[in-house]
Amino acid sequence: MTQRQQPWSDEAVGHGRILVLSDNPIARAIAVIASAVGRTVVVEPDDDGGPGLDPQPGDAVVLCDHDAPDAPTVLRAALASQASYVAMMASRRRAAGLLDELVEEGVDVSALHVPAGHDLGGKGPGEIALSVVAEIVAGSYGRPGGPMRDRSRG
Questions:
Q1: Mean pLDDT of 9-37
Q2: What whole-number distance in Å separates Cα of residue 61 and Cα of residue 53?
Q3: pLDDT score at 4
Q4: CATH number at residue 132
Q5: What is the pTM of this model?
Q6: Which of 131, 129, 113 is nearest to 61 (CA)?
Q7: What pLDDT does residue 135 have?
Q8: Cis peptide before 7 (omega within 30 of 0)
Q9: CB atoms < 10 A from the CB of 56, how many?
Q10: How many separate domains does the chain show?
Q11: Looking at the domain assignment, is residue 97 inside a domain?
Q12: Residue 151: inside a domain, yes or no?
């Protein structure tokens, strides 16, 4: 009998946490989707940053509320950390003022993903969350994302 190949691996792969500020429908959807793909998610509900997200090497930080009072502080800390992914939910236009403020302070914002996620065209919280988790997963494997059919056959 021929053994069938499975398209997945049962090998445990270590990934950092996904740290999300603050608690809103997109954050909750990120938690559900990321948990389904085996990622540990911490949602900080306090929009002032609460006790602090304390990003560690390999963690992903997602700011789901660019209007949160502590958004600049959270971004400063995340961008200065060894987090592997730092993102903010906002259009480029809405983020411009905050980014200008950080750049004026000397913060390197080149690693910041804004707007967060892959361009899936989704509008609802779950669809937006799916795009963010997809970007995090792709990045954690050193992949750009995009259709599998576009990968060279080998």
A1: 88
A2: 8
A3: 67
A4: 3.40.50.720
A5: 0.87
A6: 113
A7: 97
A8: no
A9: 13
A10: 1
A11: yes
A12: no
Cα separation of 44 and 53, whole Å?
A: 7
How far apart are alpha carbons 89 and 40 in whole angstroms? 20
d(CA 105, CA 72): 11
Spatial neighbors of 19 by CB under 8 A, at least 6 apart, are: 41, 42, 44, 53, 55, 59, 60, 61, 62, 78, 83
Percent of the chain with pLDDT over 70: 86
Residue 56 within any structural domain of the chain: yes
In-domain check, residue 78: yes
Separation CA 116–CA 76 (nearest Å): 17
Higher-pLDDT residue of 93 and 135 is 135
Yes or no: say if 82 and 55 are a contact pair by the CB < 8 Å rule: yes
Tell me the average pLDDT across 127-148. Answer: 94
Q: Where are the alpha helices (DSSP H) in 43-89?
A: 71-80
67 token code pair: 């209007």
The Cα-based distances of 25 to 94, 103, 109, 128 in angstroms read 19, 30, 26, 10
Distance between CA atoms of residues 108 and 133, nearest Å: 23
